[in-house]
Write a structure and sequence with these properties.
Number of strands: 8
CATH superfamily: SGNH hydrolase
Largest sheet: 6 strands, mixed
Order of helices and strands: HEHEHHHEHHEHHEHEEHEH
Shape: globular
Organism: Nelumbo nucifera (Sacred lotus)
Helix content: 25-40%
Keywords: Glycoprotein, Hydrolase, Signal
CATH architecture: 3-Layer(aba) Sandwich
CATH class: Alpha Beta
Distance between the termini: 44 Å
Structural class: alpha/beta
GO molecular function, one term: hydrolase activity, acting on ester bonds
Pfam families: Lipase_GDSL (PF00657)
Number of domains: 1
Protein name: GDSL esterase/lipase At3g48460-like
Strand content: 5-15%
Number of helices: 12
């Protein structure tokens, strides 16, 4: 992730962000997602597995879902220490190329079905019988060529959803399920696709980050990103995906980096950057409209929307209930109060070689990515609460009874 810090013109953001205010905020901070203490009565450690449960998961997305397709030398430039401590210290006790201190949402999903953690696609020497993770840190929804043509390249990560779809198709072909259409009569395709959950992690924040200093409008990025995500989902459904979960964008205006570089007048009801959160909210509304169309187009599939924005809002609004003492401050960073975030001295660098002693009390891990505790709390709301639409129980019932 490259960051351009400029002097921000004075603006005051109301409920709906003006283009000038939004551009001012985006010019100040490029939120490059290169890319969970649970509620007290239930936790993600409880299994969802039944006799007819999911036996494999295919995951897609950015750094919030990536379990190792990037590492220090290939990931976003301002988070180039992901292969070094203190990344991974909470659960794995060593770096695993996850952009967190431990497990991600997708890891808790795998646990819920008593499945192994998903291996990254680029690690060719692993067992893929229970699924594969195609997510890449820094990935965009829009093809990278668009940003190159418009001189908007800020980073060295050219992967997009198109890249991940190409990898997925290659994976199917390598497992005897070739072609581009559904081959339901093929035993190889049945083995690859039946009993599979398709988890599409949040994707799109990196696209908006490329707006820094550009004349391209947020509306253009939204339209292109939503169309790209929709096309990607259509391809999965054409291939035979029957059970699909699509995450929306989280409250990216609550990340430490966003808070550090925004105006104090640009705040929403929970104290986060209002203009950026409004951008994520509008993106999510457009995405949900498209999902409704896909449900009508593919009535035999279950397409669930995981409401990342609302889950994040519920947690941060009542963060003490979830065990969090620091809703905005970075656990692994530098610079001290209030946000402990300096863009060129990020987690793992010589200036930030150690993390806080209690990451479970922090929401923000490195200023852009979240702690294991936050991912766990979010996963719990997706899997066991009312933050998936339809609820996950409906998806499980459909899978169990086959109708």
């Amino acid at each position: 992730m490259n960051i351009k810090t400029q002097t921000m013109a004075s603006c005051s953001c109301s409920t709906l962000p003006s283009l000038s205010c939004l551009q001012a905020t985006l010019t100040t901070v490029a939120i490059f997602l290169v890319s969970l203490v649970s509620d007290f009565s239930l936790s993600t450690s409880s299994t969802l597995t039944t006799g007819n449960g999911f036996r494999k998961i295919y995951a897609f997305g950015d750094s919030y879902t990536d379990t190792g397709n990037t590492h220090s030398s290939t990931g976003p430039t301002n988070f180039e220490y992901v292969s070094s401590p203190p990344y991974g210290t909470t659960f794995f006790h060593q770096p695993t190329n996850r952009y967190s201190d431990g497990r991600l949402v997708i890891d808790f999903v795998a646990e819920a079905f008593s499945l192994p953690y998903l291996p990254p696609y680029l690690n060719q020497n692993v067992d893929t019988s229970h699924g594969v993770n195609f997510a890449v840190a820094g990935s965009t929804a829009i093809d990278h060529d668009f940003f190159v043509i418009n001189n908007l390249t800020l980073d060295s990560t050219p992967q997009s959803l198109h890249t991940q779809l190409t990898w997925f198709n290659k994976f199917l072909e390598d497992n005897g399920c070739g072609g581009t259409t559904t081959l339901s009569s093929s035993a190889e395709c049945r083995r690859a696709l039946d009993d599979a959950l398709f988890w599409v992690g949040e994707i799109g924040v990196n696209d908006y980050a490329y707006l820094v200093g550009s004349t391209v409008s947020p509306t253009t990025i939204q339209d292109l990103a939503i169309n790209s995500i929709t096309g990607f989902l259509q391809e999965l459904l054409k291939r035979g995906a029957k059970y699909v979960v699509v995450q929306g964008l989280p409250m990216t205006g609550c990340l430490s980096m966003a808070m550090e570089f925004s105006l104090l007048t640009d705040r929403d009801d929970v104290g986060c950057v209002g203009s950026i959160n409004m951008l994520s909210s509008m993106h999510n509304s457009a995405l949900q409209d498209k999902l409704q169309g896909l449900r009508r187009q593919y009535p035999d599939a279950i397409i669930a929307y995981a409401d990342y924005f609302s889950a994040y809002h519920a947690i941060i609004k009542n963060h003490h209930k979830y065990g969090f003492q620091e809703p905005f401050k970075t656990c692994c960073g530098s610079g001290g109060d209030p946000y402990n975030f300096v863009p060129f001295a990020t987690c793992g660098s010589p200036a930030a070689s150690t993390a806080c002693s209690n990451p479970a009390q922090f929401i923000n891990w490195d200023g852009v990515h979240l702690t294991e505790a936050m991912y766990k709390a979010t996963a719990d709301l997706f899997l066991h609460r009312s933050y998936s639409h339809p609820p996950f129980s409906v998806l499980m019932s459909r899978r169990t009874h086959g109708n």
